[in-house]
């Protein structure tokens, strides 16, 4: 499933969170009862991630939960299955072009980063390079929507919410994927 908006979480579908230990630091995931990811990133603070979720999609409360499929996908990623997060549903809201970029990002193969220009092309608006950059800035579901796979046109790393060290680590890990010719 792409990063498409939907109805907000309800009292019956409260958002929960869990934090995992990863080689890049603590990784927290905010998800619903169906294991759909609303936000994620290298932080121990679920409230930080909750603030990144579009207000219309926030649930009535955020509670710690037992890890499930979303957490399993993160662990699988770090065990070498770099596509695992792309098999987990994500729910974000950002407008048609931003959402098209998030969907395009989920199709970027590990080990094959794209430029902001290429991302804009893949999202259907080749001249919207700044909009493609905004998609990365507004992405709340890091790793599940792999904005770390976007680089500047000269191949250098652009900004990253969780720091360039984490972005470089992820790209290096994916470059060693034996299933991907680099």
From TrEMBL:
Record protein name field: Cysteine methyltransferase
Record-level GO BP terms: DNA repair; methylation
Keyword Transferase among UniProt keywords: yes
Single annotated GO MF: methyltransferase activity
NCBIfam families from the UniProt entry: ogt (TIGR00589)
Source organism per UniProt: Gordonia phthalatica
Domain Methylated-DNA-[protein]-cysteine S-methyltransferase DNA binding: start-end pairs: 96-175
Residues in coiled coil: none
InterPro entries: MethylDNA_cys_MeTrfase_DNA-bd (IPR014048), MethylDNA_cys_MeTrfase_DNAb (IPR036217), WH-like_DNA-bd_sf (IPR036388)
């Amino acid at each position: 499933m792409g990063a498409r908006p939907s109805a907000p979480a309800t009292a019956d579908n409260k958002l929960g969170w869990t934090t995992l230990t990863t080689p890049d630091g603590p990784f927290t995931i905010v998800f619903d009862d169906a294991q759909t990811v609303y936000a994620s990133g290298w932080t121990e603070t679920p409230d930080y991630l909750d603030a990144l979720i579009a207000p219309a999609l926030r649930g009535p409360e955020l509670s710690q939960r037992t890890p499930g499929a979303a957490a399993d996908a993160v662990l699988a990623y770090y065990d070498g299955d770099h596509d695992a997060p792309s098999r987990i549903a994500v729910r974000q809201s950002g407008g048609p072009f931003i959402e098209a970029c998030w969907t395009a990002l989920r199709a970027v193969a590990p080990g094959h980063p794209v430029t902001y220009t290429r991302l804009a092309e893949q999202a259907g608006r080749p001249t919207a390079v700044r909009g493609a950059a905004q998609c990365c800035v507004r992405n709340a579901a890091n790793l599940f929507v792999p904005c770390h796979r976007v680089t500047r046109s000269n191949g250098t790393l652009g900004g990253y919410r969780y720091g360039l060290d984490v972005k470089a680590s992820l790209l290096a890990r994916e470059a060693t994927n034996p299933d991907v010719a680099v």
